[in-house]
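Re: folding output
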Amino acid sequence: MLKFSRRQVAKVVADKLLAGEPSKKVIAELAAYLITHKQLSQADMYLADVESLLADRGYVVADVTSAHPLDEDLRAHIKRLVGTDAKTVALREQVDSDLIGGVIVKARGKQIDTSIRTTLQQLRTRG
């Protein structure tokens, strides 16, 4: 069985997703490839490469952690903030009550942290 570079595999995955193939099918194929080639421990790096290629083509994935589930207005605001030049912005949402309030947004190698937890930590270190 042929083995391809991580970047080559990521390109095939990104191309399939952009062509409209069902994401569950594409992910299952990627998982099978990673298992077959004993690359499962590298899965995060493969996914980062796929996300990078998608971002290059205008499709951005943003990780959003909030203290409470996001409402539609906040989702729309975050998408506008992250996707100033993107065709599409997808949010990968996670709730973490330890944040107390606010959100942490990670996209395109940058992070915006408006959480109350971080604000309190910064005040403690100044103080």
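--- second protein (sequence, then structure) ---
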Amino acid sequence: MKKVLVMFVACLVMAVMTSCGSSHENTPKGVAEAAVKCLSKKDYKGYMNLTNATDQQKEAMAQMLEKVGQQADQKGGMKDYEIVDEDIDEEKGTATVTVKINYENGENEENKMKVVQKDGEWLLSADK
């Protein structure tokens, strides 16, 4: 659960730097950046549309996203972020995007976002 929250916080940081839109680069990095944009704008529906989550998972995810937003607010919000690494396994259709988030209160953290490819489209993995 904590790892999932950390992943969502990472997404939140990246979102502050850009705007959430329906179009994004169809790469693991592009999906991660779009997700962060959505989180920064508290566009949780937009975020969930970037995942492979089932409707049932999306209900639980919405509550978790609210908590992640509150945690980021307690740190003064995101100052900036950086994509540290993008590790893609084309054969398996999976990837991990590592994001470093710097908060206004001086704290920072690195988070790994799991991304999967489904029917040629990269999506955030809803699996733990």
